[in-house]
# Entry
Amino acid sequence: PYSDCIKEENLKEYDSDIVRAFLQKNALYRQKDCILYCYGKILAKNCSCYDANYPIMDLNVPPCDGMDQFICHVNLFVEFFSQNKNI
# Structure
């Protein structure tokens, strides 16, 4: 539900962790934000860190620093965004 087809007040009908996270933060829910949020979640899961440039709602990991996390982040970025070219 990230288009103009669904009004903001009707988002509560969709049960997904992404929609709930945006609603809890009173954030605007757009397709681009949804994809970037998904990337932030995948980054946290795979690289055990977060990048402040990407929206992430729950910071249970430290910021990305160090060469290993940087390499992980770059590789993940290339893989993820090559599949999502329309962002």
